[in-house]
């Protein structure tokens, strides 16, 4: 294949991915807005929000990972023009997402005492507890929303979730502003105000996307017969068989980054606050790769349904190339601005916080240099993982991600963070090692499967 053959696919890849990217950015912006607004209160409050969000984000990643099983199944059924099959995948998938959202809320709520076993600063844990109560509840609407979103994505309608997330962010910012600082008649609630803003914004997302899909003529047929008889044990099992490994894949990666938050917290609140700043910025650029990953999942799922395996390989590799180009651009921006970006997260006008802020900025600027490099590996692994999900290949990739993140990445992070002078920077070098290993071995897996499909027509 020539380079032109791949670049010809860029336009459609971007057309499919940009609404997903904006929607993903919206999810990330919710956390970043909370961090920026809470960061104005002090490093302890920022570290508490970081700790609380880390626990919730682990659970949310498991739920989002599970919901991704809906997209390739719906995409394949859509390519086959089998509306009944697509409807069944949607309705059964939404049921599973609802149950999972409630379950994950319960898990996080009961897991709060674990914070006391993580060697975190006492003032941080005291602030994080009440914050977690509210943010954990937001898992219920956000996982239900994912059920709707992944269904619409599977039909290549990626804009509706984007609209929901963008408007929800406006709601989040307004509620945050009023309740964190106590503006006008509203009480000053600090980080609890940020948590309430997140809950209200995520409830809105579900209400909005349900309304807009139900009222759309193209989607009405998928809501018909939505009752108890629509739920099928075989379909539930098939979604679960794809969803659980996908959930584990995302959980392994997010848990590694969460471990980085906890490891940083055991070093001190300055390192933890710096870690959260760098992680927020890296997460922001990572959403571009996540959007391309969804495009990869949709397009590969479509080509699998059409049994056009050469085209499947071509479109997937075009998305891989596009992701690399984007991440290299972001890497250069991180390198150029690594001393300036952390300042947006801190109150630089408060003289009493100058010394504390200077320490946080110094650490965060070093972490951004590591992030500049590892996000290239991160981008590659997530788009390849999307392609493998489109192929409905989830078991071997789950093993690969576990080994990459927890056999390779975490031990390096732990050793360099606790037993060398690198400290927080050493933790992030471990993240880079794990992500690079995942990118390499996942691509080898994809290459092997597509060669087999082209040669034999089946896996």
**Average pLDDT figure:** 87
**SS content category:** mainly alpha
Q: What does the radius of gyration come to?
A: 22 Å
How many individual helices?
16
Question: Stretches where pLDDT falls below 50 for ≥5 residues?
Answer: none
Overall outline: globular
Short synopsis of the structure:
With about 450 residues, this protein is mostly helical.
Name the descriptors.
459 residues; 0% strand
What does this structure look like?
The protein has 459 residues and is an all-alpha fold. It is 83% helix and 0% strand. It is globular. The mean pLDDT is 87. The protein has helices at residues 3-7, 10-39, 43-67, 70-79, 83-111, 122-137, 139-154, 159-181, 191-214, 220-223, 233-267, 269-306, 309-337, 354-390, 395-419, 424-456.
Write the SSE topology.
Elements: H1 3-7, H2 10-39, H3 43-67, H4 70-79, H5 83-111, H6 122-137, H7 139-154, H8 159-181, H9 191-214, H10 220-223, H11 233-267, H12 269-306, H13 309-337, H14 354-390, H15 395-419, H16 424-456
């Amino acid at each position: 294949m020539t380079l032109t053959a791949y670049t010809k696919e860029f336009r459609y890849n971007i057309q499919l991915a940009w609404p997903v990217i904006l929607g993903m950015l919206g999810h990330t912006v919710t956390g970043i807005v909370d961090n920026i607004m809470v960061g104005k209160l002090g490093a302890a409050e920022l570290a508490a929000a970081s700790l609380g969000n880390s626990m919730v984000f682990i659970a949310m990643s498991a739920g989002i990972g599970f919901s991704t099983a809906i997209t390739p199944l719906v995409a394949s059924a859509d390519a086959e023009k089998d509306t009944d099959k697509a409807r069944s995948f949607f309705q059964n998938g939404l049921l599973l997402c609802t149950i999972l959202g409630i379950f994950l809320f319960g898990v996080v709520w009961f897991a709060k005492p674990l914070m006391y076993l993580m060697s975190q600063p006492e003032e941080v844990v005291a602030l994080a507890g009440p914050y977690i109560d509210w943010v954990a509840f937001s898992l219920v609407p956000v996982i239900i929303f994912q059920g709707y979103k992944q269904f619409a994505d599977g039909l290549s309608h990626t804009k509706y979730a984007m609209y929901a997330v963008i408007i929800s962010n406006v709601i989040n910012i307004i509620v945050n502003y009023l309740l964190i600082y106590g503006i006008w008649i509203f009480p000053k609630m600090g980080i609890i105000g940020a948590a309430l803003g997140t809950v209200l914004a995520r409830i809105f997302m579900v209400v909005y996307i349900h309304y807009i899909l139900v009222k759309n003529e193209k989607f009405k047929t998928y809501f018909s017969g939505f009752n108890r008889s629509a739920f099928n044990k075989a379909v539930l099992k098939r979604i679960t068989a794809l969803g659980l490994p996908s959930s584990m894949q995302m959980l392994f990666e997010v848990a590694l980054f969460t471990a980085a938050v906890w490891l940083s917290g055991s070093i001190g609140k300055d390192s933890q606050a710096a870690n959260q700043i760098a992680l927020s910025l890296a997460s922001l650029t990572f959403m571009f790769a996540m959007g391309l990953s969804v495009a990869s999942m949709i397009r590969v799922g479509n080509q699998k349904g059409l049994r056009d395996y050469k085209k499947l390989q071509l479109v997937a590799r075009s998305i891989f190339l596009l992701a690399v180009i984007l991440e290299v651009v972001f890497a250069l921006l991180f390198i150029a601005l690594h001393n300036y970006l952390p300042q947006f997260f801190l109150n630089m006008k408060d003289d009493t916080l100058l010394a504390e802020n200077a320490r946080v900025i110094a650490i965060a600027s070093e972490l951004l240099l590591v992030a500049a490099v590892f996000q290239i590996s991160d981008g590659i692994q997530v788009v390849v993982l999307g392609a493998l999900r489109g192929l409905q290949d989830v078991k071997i990739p789950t093993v690969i991600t576990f080994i990459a993140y927890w056999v390779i990445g975490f031990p390096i992070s732990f050793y360099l963070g606790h037993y060398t002078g690198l400290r927080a920077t050493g933790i992030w070098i471990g993240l880079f090692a794990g992500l690079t290993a995942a990118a390499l071995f996942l691509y080898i897996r994809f290459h092997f499967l597509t060669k087999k499909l082209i040669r034999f027509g089946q896996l």
